[in-house]
Amino acid sequence: MVRRLPQTRRGRVCFFALSLTLAAALLAGFGVGMNKTANAQEPQMVLSGTAVGGKAGASPLSKAPFNHQKHEAAVTNCETCHHASMDACSSCHTSAGAPEGGNVQLSQAMHNASSKMSCVGCHQQATKKQECAGCHQSIAPGPQPSSCVNCHKDPKAAASGKAAPAAPDTVVIGSLSKKYEPTEFNHSNHVEALLAATKKSSLAQAFHSPAGIVCQGCHHHTPADMAPPKCATCHGQAFSGDQRPGLMAAYHIQCNQCHKAMGIDSPKATDCQTCHTAKK
Predict the structure, then answer these.
(1) For residue 28, what pLDDT is reported?
(2) Separation of alpha carbons 225 and 162, rounded Å
(3) Average pLDDT of 148-161?
(4) What's the average model confidence in pLDDT over 257-275?
(5) Predicted confidence (pLDDT) at residue 31 exceeds the cutoff of 90
(6) What mean pLDDT do residues 112-130 have?
(7) d(Cα 126, Cα 255) in Å, to the nearest integer?
(8) How far apart are CA 246 and CA 242, in angstroms?
(9) Which of 146, 151, 199, 231 has the lowest tally of Cβ within 10 angstroms?
(10) How far is CA 145 from the centre of its chain?
């Protein structure tokens, strides 16, 4: 014989069971109690920026593909970028600038090199890493005229077929020939070290893909696809009135500051013969 629960008690049991089912469903949805983290409900790839406003005399810039998923893995929380709300950047930062966005235009919000919340500013922080600082300390922060196409890629444009300029294995520097023997600079060794540093992250690989881009850390005023002139072309023997250092100062600033930024031992300022062999 089966015992039946009183109707009121049976109702309470059903209500309790339904409550547990709903609670379990909610907890599962938020990943609570099961050591799971809720996945971000954002697209893997979005397009940001504007298709208007290219460089004078050139075609308009394409919109910039933005890999949302890859950037999620690089930040601790959504507020790193979505600092005011979870709405699209353009809802506050319009092309013309709007009060709700502090009158900061969309292009400024994306390209402000001093802001940690902008694309350029966030990437700029990464250049302070030791393996990057040697070159980037002498490169002005912010997007360079030649770097726009790294983000604003035209999907219809053909890939550049330009190769990096031929580089010598060794460079002989004889500017102090009155006191010292010429110094042999192992050029290929330095190029290989810089190329190795650019392969340590997907961010570095994306922004160092054009041929010869790593050369600009030292050859700072030469376009990436052109062979650089001799340093003495711009740096005279003595300090010039336009704030350019003299040739000897340019060499020593470039070498020593790069080594210091990258944590590489450099000789003391008075220890010339570590690099220069005295004439007999």
Answers:
(1) 45
(2) 7
(3) 68
(4) 88
(5) no
(6) 88
(7) 22
(8) 11
(9) 199
(10) 15
- One-character DSSP codes across 83-97: SS-SS-GGGTS-SS-
Give the torsion through C-alpha atoms of 166, 167, 173, 175, to 10 deg: 50
Q: Is the pTM of this model over 0.70?
A: no
CA dist 107 and 171 (Å) reads 42
Neighbours of 75 (CB within 10 A): 11
State both tokens at 145: 């005229």
Q: How many CA atoms lie within 13 A of 108 on its CB side?
A: 12
- The amino acid that residue 106 corresponds to is L
72 band by pLDDT with thresholds 50, 70 and 90: confident
The amino acid present at 201, given as its one-letter code, is S
- The gap from C-alpha 116 to its chain's centroid, in whole angstroms, comes to 12
Cα of 111 vs its chain's centroid, Å: 12
- DSSP lists the bridge partners of residue 170 as 186
Written as one letter, the residue type at 79 is E
Residues near 102 by Cβ (< 8 Å), separated by ≥ 6? none
